[in-house]
Amino acid sequence: MNETTNFIRENLLSKSKSNPSELEERVNPYLVVAPIAKKSAKIKPKKYVLDSKSSKNGVLKHLLAQNNYRMTNKLTKLYLSSFIKTSNHSIREAQDVLTKNDKIKLEKHKRYEYLKKEKEEIFKKIPVSYETLYQKMFKEMWIPYILDALKIDSSQDYKETLIKLNMNVCLNKLSICDFNGCRIKVIKSENLGYLGKEGIVLWDSQKTFIVIENNSVGLDSIKILNKSKTIFEVRLPISKNAKHELIFHIIGDRLMYRSSDRVGKKFKNKNVKDLMYYINANYLFN
Amino acid sequence: MQCDLNIPFPKDVNKESLNKLELILHTLIELNYTHVAINKQLSPKMYYIPSKKQKQQMSQKEIQDLEEFDLKSDLETYFKQFELLEEKFKHKQLKLFTRVTVEIDDPNQLGSIFINLNSPSAKNRFDLVAILPLSEKGLSFLTNNNGSGSNSTNVDIVTFDYNNYFNGFHLKHKTMNGITRRGIKVEILYSSIFNTMNQSNLKFINNSKQVIRCCRKGIKTCIISSGASQNVHVRGKIAIESILDFLGLKADVYSRMLKENPISSLLNGRLRVKSYQQTIATGFDVMMKDSELEQKGYEVVNGFVVATNNINKDTEQEPPNKKLKK
């Protein structure tokens, strides 16, 4: 080594950095081939968790600041998915309790009564049964509301009342009205697994109906039905004892709005190329 | 499934002309057609209502001709004959639909005809609404969105007069793409290839080539149908494919022009009648007519579809079943 390099190492480089051997490489006249440093691993997107500690009133602060439609969508997704997961988990717990005590072969209302008397903690977590919702939400609340909106008298003869009505006005009102508490049934869809499922609507979100399904064997469970590429049937009883019913179809692709946003909405006709499943598929193959 | 959405309704309603129409329908059944629309054509003389100033410029003969013709009674006779035809072909595989085509020369002459044809308060509504532009102004009716042009969303099909040259206008990519993006289909009528009068078979080839060129080879846009006024001019599936092959189309387009594209235009027209802006529809099935629904046990009152249940009988029968199980 020369004198000059010693001088540089001892006096100049040692002051700028603690380990002078790293800096020595820069002084080296030859080109050093070194492997490129590894890319840092991808940062995973944060999972938002609903905790009372990290936020006020169960809502994250930074999400509240951006008061967008997208953000509200994200929050409802979080809340609903956590609600459905916990309720479905507790249904499994309750069914285990029933099988252990040999009560699962009882009739349906007796199963709920048994849980209410003996296992109160589990019973509070389980969603309400289909029959009580059918009585309280559908029969006592939704039907009087919709008959009032369409101006149909259920006490009179149904033919006389229907002749007075204008059909196009009725359809316009139905497109605006609220579907929470209504009983719906899937009639046609691209997803064949959905066919024939029916239930009472708990929540009418932008892209889904959240529904309680009737289960005669076990306990009733919550299901999510997508609106896209499905058609729902609504049957509206107009006379006593539900002898005569009106039939309507909801086309899910065109109703992708929340019920509160639907009020001032002007619907328009669109291209029909995504609605081809509405026609019977048997036509196309023959 | 095969569709033929253009069978012209005779201008003069006689026994002979109606017999000709029935003959065409019988031949269509033998050729395995399932969905057929019967077409009523309206020329500008039929719907034009001139103002006072315009009447002063016209001669007396023209005014007399205008006053003699009555549109309402003419449409009523059409719907009467259509109901009679529906009853005759009730038990066969054929499904009949109504259709109207409006010839447009000048959009200012239209007035309120589209509102009258499409109004929900009207008794009889057409399943399909088509437009036949006679000049370039008539075609621009579809592309404009102001004033009366806002009714252009209610149109399903655009047709052309294939027997004559398009006088004075030339189709462009830009205008046709704007029309077809909204779901409006473009129609080709093949019956004029058998007509040798005035060299119309040659004009057909020229015109149809021009339509196919600007519609991107008609894969998702074109439909083919016969405008046949005689039963001899109707052809089956294989003969139509040879015509399309002659026009320079490929084999994957044949079935689309006969099956999927016309069905989608039928669905568009049928949803306009039976639903509110494609959101909520009445009835059990959109494509079913009222007479078909009554056969299946449903009741139709003022457009509403009513189903009758026998729930009371079922609930009475349930308790004894439960006792048997125990």
From TrEMBL, chain A:
Q: Which InterPro entries match?
A: RNase_P/MRP_Rpp29-subunit, RNase_P/MRP_Rpp29_sf, Rof/RNase_P-like, Rpp29/RNP1
- From which domain of life does this come? Eukaryota
Q: Which GO terms describe its molecular function?
A: ribonuclease P RNA binding
What UniProt keywords are attached to this protein's entry? Nucleus, tRNA processing
Q: Name one GO biological process term.
A: rRNA processing
Q: What is the predominant subcellular site recorded for this chain? A: nucleus
Subcellular location(s): the record lists: Nucleus
Q: Which GO terms describe its cellular component?
A: nucleus; ribonuclease MRP complex; ribonuclease P complex
State the family it belongs to.
Belongs to the eukaryotic/archaeal RNase P protein component 1 family.
Name listed for the protein in its UniProt record: Ribonuclease P protein subunit
Which organism is this protein's natural source?
Hanseniaspora guilliermondii
From TrEMBL, chain B:
One short Pfam name that applies is: RNase_P_p30
- Name the record gives this protein: Uncharacterized protein
Its GO CC terms?
nucleolar ribonuclease P complex
Q: Which residues form a coiled coil?
A: none
InterPro entries, alphabetically? Pol/histidinol_Pase-like (IPR016195), RNase_P_p30 (IPR002738)
Q: Spell out the family assignment given in the record's similarity comment.
A: Belongs to the eukaryotic/archaeal RNase P protein component 3 family.
Mind giving the lineage of the organism this protein is from? Eukaryota, Fungi, Dikarya, Ascomycota, Saccharomycotina
An example GO biological process term is: tRNA processing
**Gene3D superfamilies, A to Z:** Metal-dependent hydrolases (3.20.20.140)
Q: What is its main location?
A: nucleus
Name the domain of life this protein comes from. Eukaryota
